[in-house]
Amino acid sequence: MTKETLLIVDDEEDLLQLLKRSLEPDLGCEVKVASSGGEALNVLEREPVDLLLVDMKMPEMNGLELLEQVRAGYPWLTVVMMTAHGCIELAVQAIRMGAYDFITKPFDHETLVLSLNKALERSRLLRENLNLQRHVQMHEAFQNLVGKSARMQRVYEAIQMVAKTDLTVLITGESGTGKDLACRAIHALSQRRSNPFVAVNCPAIPENILESELFGYRKGAFTHATQNRTGLFQEAHKGTIFLDEIGDISPNIQAKLLRVLQEKVIKPLGDTKSVSVDVRVVASTNRDLGDRIRRGEFREDLFYRLNVLPIVMPSLRERPEDIPLLVNHLIEKHCAALNRPRKSVAPELTEIFLRAPWPGNVRELENVIVRGLLFAPRDEILPEDVGFHRPVKGRIPGKDAPSTNVPYKDAKEEALRGFHAEYFGGVLTATRGNVSHAAKLCGLERQALQQLLRRYGIRSDAYRTN
């Protein structure tokens, strides 16, 4: 266990050495000394200190001035003041400014040791409280990012590392991998966590509106601009702005974002003056920005400004060992949200989950779980409840070679069932269970599609999301 550290600050060198020799064995801690307030601040910058013992009267920077700087920069640090008998009023002032205690000179050694032991105990309690708070913050930040795989452990480590900085982060990964959750975790673990978090779904906002949404506008800047409006960058001042799917924004918006990142200023539409903003930018994309740069669709200089601290979110295919954990998490989450009794997933459906390609990643898995909770008639969700067909002897029909352990006619029928379940399942997922739209995509008449769905036991209502 690391020894606790006491830093004594006094301009009397003889007293410093005397206190160091006498207090180290009696307190059982490491004692460091500083002969001025400036020297003490340098020590605090370099290494951790548990307790500060400060003389009230020193040249250049007195004890109260040092206390004020310590409270501003190290609010958790316990400070005990030393003062002469005639300076009790100053000692009381120090207590009001945040000092834990004061000791009058000349002091009795046993009284000093007792007082410092109490102060060290306070430091221990504060440290334990801070560690508990950090643990709670970590748990809350990562509660929606589920997984124990090596790839997810690297993601957690990267998030904790970048959260300590104020630099721009670019999160990449396929749709549905949780890029937005990673961004929220970065904000929750950062020094900006008590300030605004503003998320912007860039592709969802038309280009002609996105600029005014991001940067704001002044009255009269365009038709219908009847009053001033604050942009999202200003709303995120002192906090974090999340630019989701930034790879889809236009070159015009790209140029303006580059200026924000370079100069930390924005210019609202119709304004002649720039406005300073203090915002941490986190962006995400499921696009290959390198390819878009080569095609001239994305600015290379903007990419390098964004890609200061990159984080890659793994696809579900790359971490199948996390699927059982995700299934349990999603069941608990949506049972509470839907007010449904808890259900389990049948072993054969878990097998399908583990081997499915999941192009929509966690979001697709979540949709399947929701369908199962809504439509499974029993306490156990079966493959047919969510539009999958049961695997035969460990295989997924339509994915592997047909089994040779069954008659040809049965194997053919099983393969057809698997094909139709997979094909129509994909189409109905894309159309959210709308049979008419699905029929158009398939090139079939609606009635013909309904007959096939009935024949192979595929329920369109299992794919409806609302």
UniProtKB/TrEMBL annotation:
A GO molecular-function descriptor: sequence-specific DNA binding
Where are the coiled-coil regions? none
* Keywords, alphabetical: ATP-binding, DNA-binding, Nucleotide-binding, Phosphoprotein, Transcription, Transcription regulation, Two-component regulatory system
Q: Which SMART domains match?
A: AAA (SM00382), REC (SM00448)
| Pfam families reported for this sequence | AAA_lid_14, Response_reg, Sigma54_activat
Q: Which residues carry this modification: 4-aspartylphosphate?
A: D55
Superkingdom is: Bacteria
- The residues covered by the Sigma-54 factor interaction domain are 145-374
- InterPro entries of this UniProt entry? AAA+_ATPase, AAA_lid_NorR, CheY-like_superfamily, Homeodomain-like_sf, HTH_Fis, P-loop_NTPase, Sig_transdc_resp-reg_receiver, Sigma_54_int
GO BP terms, alphabetized: phosphorelay signal transduction system; regulation of DNA-templated transcription
Q: Is Transmembrane helix one of the keywords?
A: no
Asked if the Swiss-Prot or TrEMBL record annotates the protein with the keyword RNA-binding, the reply is no
Tell me the ranges covered by the Response regulatory domain, including all copies. Answer: 5-120
Q: What is this protein called?
A: Two component, sigma54 specific, transcriptional regulator, Fis family
